[in-house]
Amino acid sequence: MRKFVYGLLTTLLVAMVGCVTINVYFPEAAAQKAADQFIGTVLDSNAPAAPPQKDQPPAPAKDGHQPSAMLLDLLIPAAYAADTPNIRIQTATTEAIHDRMRQRFHDTLAPLFNSGTVGFTKDGLVAVRDAAKLPMDQRAAVNAAVADENRDRDALYREVANANNHPEWEAQIRATFAKGWIERARAGWYYQDASGGWKQK
Asked: What's the DSSP call for residue 42?
């Protein structure tokens, strides 16, 4: 009897570990590749628009599994995780956000990055780094442009997570984009390091 109880507890423990494996899996490499493509077409005026993605199913949602599928997940979590499709980043909402961000970058933000007035923050947003570089009569317009940009960025990270049926991925999506914005920053632009301090690339 005791052996049976130990065996049962061990099986339950393995199953619980399997569940954790499923819940925390995030396709980091696929997300970074998709983020890099998005960022490149925003920052680079010569970059071609991203080609339409094939109809790609979003990652499976956690909820709504049939009992049989849930049992299978418990038994073979690694296989389940390995079968997770590439991340979906292109939706009607993200395309609209992309167009606004691209237009705003070329109309307003690019000169501000070049002058060091604004920079990339560590959490995937932009911020006014040195308002003293701006004439007083331009500050309100620049602050409004930065607010609009950050509103779109917040919406982008949320939309990508939702499009993949994993709203809990929003923080990881944000971190992935934050890394991408900084990596693609041009020489002379400013960005925040992990401590929040400004550095020049």
From this structure: H
The residues near 194 (Cβ < 8 Å, ≥ 6 apart) are 122
Q: How many residues are recorded in the chain? A: 201
Q: Per DSSP, which regions of the chain are E strands?
A: 118-120, 126-128, 190-192, 198-200
Mean pLDDT in the chain? 82
Q: In what order do the strands lie in the sheet with 126-128?
A: 126-128, 118-120, 190-192, 198-200
Q: State in Å, rounded, how far the first CA of the chain is from the last one.
A: 66
> d(Cα 23, Cα 94) in Å, to the nearest integer?
25
Rounded Cα gap, residues 189 and 182, in angstroms: 9
Confidence of residue 80 (pLDDT cuts 50, 70, 90): very low
**Whole-angstrom Cα distance, residue 152 to residue 32?**
19
pTM: 0.73
| Residue 71 binned pLDDT confidence (cut-offs 50, 70, 90) | very low
Residue 176 CA to its chain's centroid (Å): 5
